[in-house]
Amino acid sequence: MMDPEIKTIKRPDGEIQRLQTVKLPDWESPAFFRPQPAKDPLPGLLRIYRQFLVPSAPWIFGQMVLLRVPEGMALPAGVDASDDPEDRLFTAADLLREGVRLVRGKPHFRTAEARLLWEKLEGAGALETVCGKLPFTKVIPVSEKMGLLSESAQEASLRVNASFFIMDPFDCASPYDSVGTPFGLCVKDGEILSPPLYEREALLVEKSGCVRIGKPSLQELTIEIAGQVFEPGRNAEIISRPLCSRTAVGSGPEAVIVGRKVRALNLVGGLEVPAAGFVLRSPDLQGNCMGGEVRYHGPEDIVFGIQAGSSLLRDGVRSGGFLSPFYNIRKLQRTAFPPSLYPLNYEKDRAARIALGADKDGRPMLLWAEGAPKIGYRRGETSCGASLSEMEEYCREAGMANAVNLDGGGSAQILLNGRRALELSDRKEDGSELERAVPLGVSVH
Q1: Which residues in the chain come in under a pLDDT of 70?
Q2: Both 285 and 385 in a single domain?
Q3: How far apart are CA 121 and CA 88, in angstroms?
Q4: Cβ contacts of residue 433 below 8 Å, gap of 6+?
Q5: How many structural domains is the chain composed of?
Q6: Is the bond preceding residue 425 a cis peptide, omega within 30 degrees?
Q7: For 158, 171, 208, 326, which has the most beta carbons within 10 A of its beta carbon?
Q8: pLDDT value of residue 395
Q9: pLDDT tens for residues 381-428?
Q10: Contact 194, 341 (CB under 8 A)
């Protein structure tokens, strides 16, 4: 790894900010990877919900059930579920949605299957409740595919967190969404590992060496499922949030797609639209598409691409605000649009940040702005975190010409040869660092 640099900036308001800049060797080296799944992703997630998320705005949260399905656990007799871990997780979540209601944190059961499943999950430590002020019950499945960067791809010389993922209850907007599902464009050597969503900005590196900020769209891609080819505007239609949360019954054959998998298929429509995916409608859809692998074709000239938001610099010019659409649950709008708590004050709200970009010659760079510790913060002694506006300034001063903001907050970290030079912002009760499990990282070997 080339030229890692750490510096401390003294802000005019008396705060300090520590920054780490890393120059990468080339754009062929970075690759996406899935972290080694955590043994139990619930404890870390519960800390975030109970310590920070719900206490910050209890009046917008209901009575929440968080669950996972441990490997090898049998679902109640008579319940139809495949051996696929995600299918089992969604089936279990559906059983609880239909058969359980929380009242002041206590379960009230409508069905015997729900009671049996609840008792099995609770006994295995795979079910927890977190309660806000509102009376509605929300069942939140938690993916087993999240893991710690520090315990994964340890042979890599660099590891860094990547794009956004489903994190809070409002982002679990359909039966096909689970906490820990990544979303947003990820491209490596022309292959789309995750499709673009919400027409947000992405950092795109072309084979020619050109680095640019673009807004890729699903409408520009060809989608292949089980050998069938679907082209939006020709033989297919794309339906996504926030414009539509459920399609109409009778609208024709439809498939729910999350990532690279068909999660549901209905020949007459009437499907809920996932927050982490979309619905494809086409008269050509057939039954063999269900569960099939999805492939996307279009950006074969892209060496590396990642979509998160928002862009910070484009051709040396600061963005100066949100240039992509973001949804803010604090306005109490009802259509989920992840990440729902992201778009706070662009100028003032500070957090840990990660930026990926390139200098004027197209050479790749990373910048980590350390966040304020959630426990043990000391003004003028620990980093205050960066607003998005301040992050623009830091990126430009570091020499970037194009830059996009990656997932930040408690996810933000850079590991060089297995070590972090800066500190994580999430903390345990004793003030020690708490690493957040994530579903996707970028590594350089």
Answers
A1: 1-3, 78, 80-81, 327-343
A2: no
A3: 13
A4: 423, 424, 426, 427
A5: 3
A6: no
A7: 171
A8: 97
A9: 999 999 999 999 999 999 999 999 999 998 999 999 999 999 999 888
A10: no
CA distance 137 to 169: 11
Whether residues 196 and 111 fall in one domain: no
What does the alpha-carbon distance between residue 438 and residue 146 come to, in Å, rounded to a whole number?
5
Residue 117, pLDDT score: 94
- Rg of the chain over all Cα atoms, to the nearest angstrom: 22
Q: Are 138 and 57 in contact, with CB atoms under 8 Å apart?
A: no
State the DSSP code for 81: -
Q: How far apart are CA 194 and CA 184, in angstroms?
A: 6
The Cα–Cα gap between 216 and 305 comes to 10
SS3 393: helix
d(CA 69, CA 83): 12
Say which residue the tokens 């309660």 belong to: 131
The per-residue pLDDT for 332 is 47
Q: What is the DSSP annotation of 163-180?
A: S-B--SGGG--STT--BT
288: left (phi over 0), alpha (psi -120 to 50) or beta: alpha
Half-sphere exposure of 70 (CA within 13 A, CB side): 14
Separation between Cα atoms, residue 282 and residue 304, nearest integer Å = 30
46 and 33 share a domain?
A: no
Instruction: Tell me, yes or no, whether 221 lies in a domain.
Output: no
Helix (H) or strand (E) holding 358: strand 353-358
Same domain, 62 and 203: no
- The Cα 132–Cα 114 span in angstroms is 22
Q: How far apart are CA 39 and CA 402, in angstroms?
A: 38
What are the C-alpha distances in Å from 342 to residues 10, 349, 422? Answer: 26, 10, 23
Classify 313 as helix, strand or coil: strand
Can you read off the two tokens belonging to residue 51?
A: 């310590």
80 inside domain: yes
